[in-house]
Amino acid sequence: QVQLVESGGGLVQTGGSLRLSCVASGGTSSSYTMGWFRQAPGKEREFVAAISWGGRSTRYAGSVKGRFTISRDNAKNTMYLQMNSLKPEDTAIYSCAADRAKLGYDPPLSRHDYAYWGQGTQVTVSS
Q: Rounded CA gap, 2 and 11, in Å?
């Protein structure tokens, strides 16, 4: 069983930056594909970014590509999401997710493909 805890959310102005962290415990994080998802009020949870177990493969939603960067440090059992040029439409609860890595496959985009979830951290971007 893997436990995930996010941190780093907060209130920022348009154009600002935040760095989210997700610490994993209870498993060997390097064996897991990990991802970030977000959910805005009244909307469904949507994919933001994902990273393979070794960090070589990354995937991004079109809405954040070029502004957000996903990374991981397996020695620290931690995944990060660097968010730059933030916009009001980025306001949401951001959650990290993990699932056992499947060799030869890119990190999945669907929330249904992740078994483990954190509680989430609020990101609010003011205009």
A: 29
